[in-house]
Amino acid sequence: MEEVTVVIVGAGPAGLASSACLNVESISNIVLEREDCCASLWKKRSYDRLRLHLAKEFCSLPYKEHSPETSTFMSKDTFISYIDSYVSEFNITPRYSRSVESAFYDEKMKKWRIKAKNGVSGEMERYSSDYLIVASGENNEAFVPEVQGLTSFKGELIHSSEYKNGKRYKGKDVLVVGCGNSGMEISHDLSEYDARTSIVIRSPFHVLTKNMVHMGMLMTKYLPVHIVDTLISLAASITYGDLSKYGIHRPEQGPFALKLLSGKTPVIDGGSVSRIKSKRIKVVPEIVNINGTNIEFVDGTEQKFDAIIFATGYRSGAKEWLKDYQHVLDDEGMPKKKYPDHWKGENGLYCAGLSGRGLDGISADATHIAADIRELLKNKA
Ligand SMILES: Cc1cc2nc3c(=O)[nH]c(=O)nc-3n(C[C@H](O)[C@H](O)[C@H](O)COP(=O)(O)OP(=O)(O)OC[C@H]3O[C@@H](n4cnc5c(N)ncnc54)[C@H](O)[C@@H]3O)c2cc1C
Ligand SMILES: *[C@@H]1O[C@H](CO)[C@@H](O)[C@H](O)[C@H]1NC(C)=O
């Protein structure tokens, strides 16, 4: 058994940022990562055309800004090289191919006991620590909702995390389920590759350009949210007009208020809306039944599809291995406490990157956690 002050589960941006902040404070830590590389979500589970949706000043990790040459909305590859240099600059040495299978709190010894399977040797490794940071991501488990008749579907069925590009869907009828950022962007990509693309839209959402989001984020630093919402909504209606005739309805709450209240992010339009307007992407309502390749919708229409892509989001999945999750997580595997107090649990358990606030939220979590551990260690000494 190996003893260390802090164990961090996951070498995505949240785990790396946490490790960097601890290294700066000279607090010993071990990062355990299931995959054979860091930032595996970005390197292995994201589509080709992905660019960061948010401006670069909201996408950096602690102690390292993006370089002035980096474009405001950087590509996936630029972000990946930023991460790789972050790892070497802060001497982060994740232990790869370590899948954490269980972690529990030993009340008697006041230690966390962690078991990780070494994917190369096949051995079970044991770690013991005073503090444990859950950084396994809110995008860890692909989520597919229950749909009547789904098991009867004769075509191809994938989750957005498996989607790379639309090349092999040319000329095919493809249904995208889910109209968040991934669903909208994948629809756009499919339609550019000449797939006959439909998207299921069930509930209201805001559509904004990335510049509107950027402007709104800057304005919320100085203005009350309802004013920002009024201004940004005005800009959106000038740009897009009334989208309700295309099946896109705006929520009652403004985009930034809604984000604060429910964590629901606006859809950042990269061209999908103009394709919806020109009918190159068809909007369909909720699915009621699937039979073979035939899909029936709630408005009574039916259509045959060759493929369905579920862009229906993710679950954290941390409960699978974290036996004593209730010290920081709820039954959904998400933080028990409300933002901004979500990151700290009991008995030395923390979570980083589970606040639904992207890289900016991750950076704040890592900074808070490292400062907290530093203070606790100081008091102990
Ligand atoms: C398509 C897409 C686009 C996005 N675009 C943006 C954007 O533009 N801006 C933004 O701010 N955010 C964006 N996000 C949000 C994104 O989730 C974060 O930016 C970031 O990648 C999350 O980092 P993380 O470290 O919390 O989780 P992850 O990146 O998911 O990393 C978690 C790591 O933990 C590992 N792990 C999980 N379970 C275990 C286990 N049991 N044992 C060992 N290791 C484990 C995983 O293998 C993974 O490497 C996007 C997300 C997606 C899916
Ligand atoms: C599926 O379709 C077939 C042929 O169109 C029909 O015979 C069958 O009853 C349908 N099954 C269901 C469960 O709707």
From TrEMBL:
UniProt pathway annotation: Plant hormone metabolism; auxin biosynthesis
Keywords, comma-separated and alphabetical: Auxin biosynthesis, FAD, Flavoprotein, Monooxygenase, NADP, Oxidoreductase
Domain of life from the UniProt record: Eukaryota
InterPro entries documented for this protein: Auxin_biosynth/cation_transpt, FAD/NAD-bd_sf, Flavin_mOase, Flavin_mOase-like
Pfam families attached to this UniProt entry: FMO-like (PF00743)
EC number: 1.-.-.-
Molecular function, one GO term: indole-3-pyruvate monooxygenase activity
Family stated for the protein in its record: Belongs to the FMO family.
Protein name: Flavin-containing monooxygenase
